[in-house]
Each structure stands twice: as C-alpha cells, then as structure tokens.
Write a structure and sequence with these properties.
It is a single chain. The chain has eight helices and six strands. A hairpin with a 4-residue loop joins β2 and β3. The chain is α/β, with parallel strands linked by helices and about 220 residues long. The radius of gyration is 20 Å and the shape is globular. The protein has one domain. This is DDE Tnp4 domain-containing protein.
Length: about 220
C-alpha cells in the first residue's frame, strides 16, 4: 500500500473526546458547616476523575463518516485512558470484520493515540522514532493532508455545541443530581446533530463530493 493509497483509504475519522462534568454526589454529609464529604461516594467520584486532566469527566469515542453522519460509543467514565476507551469500544475489530474478503481494506483515521500496535484497521499520522530520524517527504505530505481531514470531526463537535448549548458547560452534566439522564442527553444531542446534517447538508461531505443521506433513510422511516 503506497502513500497515496494509504491517504485515500482513511475516509472515516475516529476520535476520543472528553467532557468535564460536575463532581458526582458532591456535597457535605449533612446540613452543617465543615462537615466531611459523603464517604460512600468516594469510589464513584474517583471513577470519573481523570488524573491526566485533573477534573471529573466522561468521554466518548466518535466515528465520523464522509457523508456527515457520525456514530458514538459511550459515554464512559473519564478515569480510564483514551486507548482503554478505544480498546473497549471494539471499533477496530468491527471495521476489520465488515470488510472480510475484500480486496482492499479501508481504515479509519484518528489522532496519535491510535498508533497503538494492537490496532489493525485504524491508523494515525506517521511519526519519526528516535533522535535524528526525519520523516520522508511523502510521509510529511500524507500527514499534512490527513491533518486537514482530521479537523473536520472537530467541526462536528463545534456544530453540536452551537446547536445544543447544554453541551458547553460541565454544569449541564450532573450525574445523580438534577440531571440523572446526562448520558442519554449527550446521545440525543448527537443523534439530533446527525438529523440536522441530513436536513441541511454538511460542509465536509460537500467538499468530498458526497451527499448526506435523506432523513427518512437515516431514520429508516
């Protein structure tokens, strides 16, 4: 597989996104000042705390298609690493299985966390390993082109946030509090963004010469 074949085969974009949330079950163990936190919820709070980002969070893995439609795995607790989310989603196995016995396998493309050795159907940028190692010009060219494609999935999340401002603030993600349906809320916003793209088109798909599906076909009405 040459550089340009590799480039053209990465038409599906994958990413892991982390959203900050309100501390689960936050609050003192009573109605008096200087009371300790509720000890029975410490395990739950640690489960959603990211030691890398230093805040409580949930994360999703999103797979974006060239036609402006995307699919989501999660949300899951933000404590685990991004590569753990990738492994648990089973996305790599799924992409490989649906292309069995095909003469050429198309791959998803993601950021550098997808350079894990166990992944066979998802690829990332070329990297220069070791001191003094320089990428070939073909590799740099592919990285440049893939970087442009990679930006499109970020635009998708920006579009979802503009359409549904409830996704902008961690105060909107309060697990086990005022909004116990926070995980379902994120999935619904994701679904409705896909529906919006079906009705209004998608800028990225138009650049690739691909049309978004008709809403009735997407919902299978």
């Amino acid at each position: 597989m040459d550089y340009y074949t590799t480039q053209s085969s990465c038409l599906v974009l994958s990413t892991v996104l982390m959203d900050g949330i309100h501390v689960p079950f936050a609050g003192p163990a009573g109605d008096f000042e200087l009371l300790p936190r509720k000890e029975q919820y410490q395990i739950t709070q640690r489960a959603f705390y990211s030691g890398y980002k230093h805040f409580h969070s949930i994360k999703v893995e999103t797979l974006g298609l060239p036609n402006g439609i995307s699919f989501m795995y999660g949300p899951v607790a933000g404590r685990g690493s991004d590569i753990t989310t990738v492994r648990d989603s089973g996305l790599d196995d799924f992409i490989r299985l649906i292309q069995q016995n095909k003469p050429m396998m198309y791959m998803a493309f993601g950021d550098l966390i997808y350079n894990a050795q166990f992944l066979t159907a998802i690829r990332s940028y070329y990297e220069a390993h070791g001191p003094g190692v320089i990428l070939m010009w073909q590799e740099r060219l592919v990285n440049l082109e893939l970087s442009w494609i990679r930006q499109q999935i970020e635009f998708y999340f920006g579009e979802m946030s503009n359409l549904f401002t409830i996704c902008l603030s961690k105060e909107s993600y309060k697990l086990a509090k005022e909004h116990p349906y926070v995980l379902e809320q994120l999935r619904v916003c994701h679904l409705m963004t896909n529906m919006y793209n079906c009705l209004n088109g998608d800028k990225f798909s138009s650049k690739l010469g691909v049309h978004t599906p008709v809403l009735e076909d997407y919902l299978r009405l």
